[in-house]
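Dock tricarbonodiimidic diamide; give full complex structure.
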Amino acid sequence: MAGADDSKTIQIAAEPEPVSVAPGRTALVIIDMQRDFLEPGGFGAALGNDVSLLKAAVAPCQAVLAAARAAGMLVIHTREGHRADLSDAPPLKVERGDERLRIGAPGPMGRILIRGEAGHDIVAELYPAAGEPVIDKPGKGAFYQTDLELMLRNRRIDNLIVCGVTTEVCVNTTVREANDRGFRCIVLADCCASYFPEFHEAGLKMIKAQGGIFGSVASSQSFLSALARA
Ligand code: TIU
């Protein structure tokens, strides 16, 4: 696929203020849209959550993913999960909750949150296309113990359009990590979701408060309109 032009910019309506980015210097990062978080029988359900709350983000993500691909933008997917022997999983993380439902325990979609298992994979609607990097991360943040930063720097990416789940956990952690590293984040509100609607709202507010202390928040429509105008 041809790369996006990095000499032209698009202006995205966002809060706290509009943002201009060059699509060629911008990556779409889709965080952890995995069956283990979105479907019954996975990690999200094991933690006691109503996983159906996350489904609302799928359709907006599909539209954004299609538009980003059409614009030639870099698309990066992340997955949270661990090695089969759990050697990369902190005991503190593994030993949480009911023993039968912990990371590594057998579930209807394979061992919970283990790389290579069906539940660890990305939902069919947002499945990575050939050539799109997939970052396997052991933590909440996509930069922690991964080669994401190297990949972004090598491609001269300055800006991240961020989607995924959950808003206050892996999305927020990743946005904070990105902000400290100097990447401008634009979080698409309706492309993110949480098991706790109030945490979704608060998670977005925390990002855009104080003049956009961690980044900006926009709607998927604002992003799609900005690309369509270009
Ligand atoms: N539990 C929860 O809200 N989230 C996670 O455990 N991981 C991500 O957010 N991906």
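Observed: Helices lie at 35-38, 43-46, 58-70, 91-94, 148-154, 167-180, 197-212, 220-229.
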